[in-house]
Every structure is written in structure tokens, then in C-alpha cells.
Amino acid sequence: MSAQTPRPRLAVWKFASCDGCQLTLLDCEDELLGIAQELDIAYFLEATRAPIRGTYDLSLVEGSITTPHDAERIQDVRRRSRSLVTIGACATSGGVQALRNFADVKEYASIVYARPDYIHTLATSTPIADHVKVDFELRGCPIDKGRLIEVISAFLIGRKPVTPAHSVCLQCKLKGNVCVMVAHGTPCLGPVTHDGCGALCPSYDRGCYGCFGPMETPNAPSLSGWLARLGMDERDLQRVYRTFNANAEPFRTESQRHGK
Fold first, then answer.
1. Distance (Å, rounded) from C-alpha 237 to C-alpha 239?
2. Any idea what DSSP says for residue 94?
3. What are the pLDDT digits (tens) for 88-142?
4. Residues 241 and 255 sit within 8 Å (Cβ to Cβ)
5. What is the pTM of this model?
């Protein structure tokens, strides 16, 4: 009798982040049980204390690179991973901690910490793709459970994940939502933001905050014109693009148009 074919090995890694995207995987509950039958969850410190050393067929990486140690460790993760998928705003754009990219980190450290000489950090917070080859990026703060299952399932059967890159506006139309900008004059980043949340905030008459980062080919300058007509000044326009995905190129560029 031939030996049973070994199951693919999954690893989940944490860098600078809040753990929210890893918790999304744990929140899959019933789906996670099915995944566990198809994969060996070999390294996932959020869920187990018994990591399996060696190499991995699929690595999910949460978090940004913010320290010299992070920059070294991600190289090791890449070498040990057949496929590497980044999950969440921190891993795909640098996260909210990338606000440091617009400021003096040494000045911040001197204000926040009693002994800043103990702090060993980089001047910037950068996405994983700035340091190693990434096979797929899954955006969101946090990521969507359904799309995470789609990415893992696609890996298991050897196809490209299907994660549409249209804007939140399309999702609002599909749900029959009244546009909060047109109807209520509420500032909203939906026209330039990657869908993935199911238009959660606009469904409750709130403007989109851009949690899923920029959609493909966003026209942020045009949106800024609309936001200005709704009463946003230059400072507000700068701040609205500097949240969870402040370092994502379209948002970074547009924020810099409205101040340093």
C-alpha cells in the first residue's frame, strides 16, 4: 500500500499589527474545521503552542515591517514558503502605523517613551511586498472572512483567487443603498475604496472610511473636489486619506497634495 499523500502545510505569521486579521481566520469556525481537514496548520501561534518547523506550502502574513528584526525575519519566512499571501491593511500597505512615514519617528519616540534609547525601530512602516515577493494580497482592516476562505480554497485547488477589485459604490448599488454623499452630503471614500466589507458603513448611513484601501485606478483628485464642496478644508482632506491605508500609493499621493 502506498503512503498517503501529505497534506499542504499552512503557516500564519504576525508582524506589526493588531492581530485582527488572524482573528478573522479563527472566526471562520465551521469553515476552519473544513480547512483543517485539507491542510496541516503547521505554524499559527495565535491558535496553537505546537508549531511544526520546516517549510510551508502556504504562508499567510499579517502585519507591516517596522523594525530591523522584522526586515530580517520576513526574508526567512519567504525562503521557507512556497506561496506567500499578505492579509490586511498592515501587510498590504503598512497599516495605520505608516502614519510615521509622514513624521519624525525619533521625535515621536522621545515624547512617548521615558527611555527612547531602548526603542529599536525603523523610520517607516512598509508593506511586506516592499521587502519580498508576494504571491497575492488580500486587503482589509480587518480582512473579510469570505474572501479569506476563497483565497485558501483557491490555493488548495491551484487556481487564482477571485476577489473583485471594484469600488464600494458598486456594492452599495447592489444592496440598494441610497448614496450618503448625494442624499445626505456625508463625506465618503466609497468611490475610491476597494470593496470587501459589503458596504458596511454606508448601509448604516455612514460614509466609508477606506478600510479596504484604494480600488484599482481610483480617481482620488476628483473625489477630493467633491469632498471640498461638502465642506472639507485642506487639513480635513489630508487626514481623510491617512487612516488604515495611509501609505497605499493613491491615498498617500492624494494626501500629500493637501499638505506635507
1. 5
2. -
3. 999 999 999 999 999 999 998 999 899 999 999 999 999 999 999 999 999 999 9
4. yes
5. 0.92
Does residue 12 sit in helix, strand or coil?
A: strand
- In this structure, which long-range contacts are made by residues 109-115, counting pairs with CB atoms below 8 Å and at least 24 apart in sequence? none
Q: Give the DSSP H/E element, type plus range, for residue 83.
A: strand 81-87
CA distance 152 to 4: 22
Task: Report the relative pairing of strands 56-62 and 40-44 from DSSP bridges.
Answer: unpaired
Task: Confirm if 172 and 179 have CB atoms less than 8 A apart.
Answer: yes
Helix crossing, 145-157 with 30-38: angle to 10°? 20
Residue reference for cell 468611490: 191
Q: Which three cell numbers stand for residue 183?
A: 442624499
| pLDDT, tens digit, 9 for 90 and up, residues 168-180 | 999 999 999 999 9
* Contact present, 86 and 128 (Cβ < 8 Å): yes
Alpha helices (runs of H) in 65-179, residue ranges in sequence order:
68-79, 89-93, 105-112, 145-157, 168-175
